Amino acid sequence: MIVVTTPTGLIGHQVVGRLLEAGAPVRVIARDPSRLPEAVRAQVEVFPGSHGDRAVLDEAFSGASSVFWLVPPDPRATSVHAAFVDFTRPAVDTWVAHGVPRVVGISALGRGTPVAAQAGYVTGSLAMDDLIAGSGVSYRALVCPTFMDNVTRQATLIREQGVFTTPLPGEDKRPTCATRDIAAVAATLLLAEGWSGVEEVPVLGPEDLSYDEMARIAGDVTERPIRYQQTSAEAYRATMIEAGLSDAMAQGMVDMALAKASGLDNGVTRSAAYSTPATFREWCADTLRPLVLGHPPAQHGSAPVARERERR
Predict the structure, then answer these.
(1) Of all helices (H) and strands (E), which one includes residue 250?
(2) Can you tell me whether residue 81 is helix, strand or coil?
(3) Fold of 2-292
């Protein structure tokens, strides 16, 4: 039995879809089960509630062979540590109590880089990995760069002004990946039974790109001029506060961006094992172009998307 958290999220719903396509038995923990498509609800065991609730976890993880773990958004958290580590602690205790053998989690690149200790959300993700690894459960942390899918948050700005922004320099190359590829790697590991121990699994996409290059590619695909514009850390933080984040979580976003600008995502050398297939041009064609042109794209997976926060 495979247990999936965040089954209506950007990555989680695609994991559920791939597992069901493979014929695997699936349980999901969902805060709002009504957001699961009827076809999915008919094929899975649904445990309503939060995957931070020990009582829910005690039922859902009983007899589980593997777990897909993703920390949900908590924009009002008092600290990044609370959002990642404290939220995960009840799950770790429950995995140990029930003898859950394998966990696949979504984390971030950066371990071993000089800026990892002051990288906001990434620092929290890596501390979460350490907590899980210390429990004795076999664990694969999918360590990811910035998601291509984050660009969709600025589809309106791209459509109306022909620009997208972040606090990172536009000329620096770094890896980026599509969430559909992350889901594919996660599903493969969840379905496999022959692995043990603790490892990081980088998910790097097929190529390193700068934001300037991404803007040119997006412009080619959408057939309209698009440019990248670097914003200041102060303006970025103000935007996060305006969006409802607590001071601590907004600062976590800023710290993560500044760390990425200092090479946080460039510590792993790309290899065939770490590359995933979806190029940014392909992703723009099937996901960004329809949004910019006002025609929402077909979803990858089998559940509606509730966007996980821009953590990468």
Answers:
(1) helix 247-261
(2) helix
(3) Rossmann fold (3.40.50)
Residue whose pair of structure tokens reads 């906001």 in the numeric block = 120
Spatial contact of 52 and 43, defined as CB atoms under 8 Å apart: no
For residue 238, what are the contacts with CB-CB under 8 A and spacing of at least 6? none
The residue whose two tokens read 């976590």 is 252
Cα 39 from Cα 169, distance rounded (Å): 44
The dihedral over CA atoms of 164, 167, 172, 176, expressed in degrees to the nearest 10, equals: -70
Strands lying side by side in the sheet with 208-209: 146-147, 174-177, 208-209
Domain boundaries, the chain: 2-292
SS3 of 298, please?
A: coil
Alpha carbon separation from 214 to 65, 87, 132 (Å, rounded)? 40, 35, 35
Instruction: Kindly report the number of other CB atoms within 10 A of residue 23's CB atom.
Output: 9
Indicate the SS3 state at residue 295: coil
Q: Which helix (H) or strand (E) holds 46?
A: strand 45-48
CA distances 36 to 85, 88, 179, 184, Å, are 27, 23, 19, 20
**Confidence (pTM):** 0.93
Residue 169, both tokens: 């320099």
For 176-218, the pLDDT digits (tens) are 999 999 999 999 999 998 899 999 999 999 999 999 999 999 9
Q: Residue 116 carries which DSSP code?
A: G
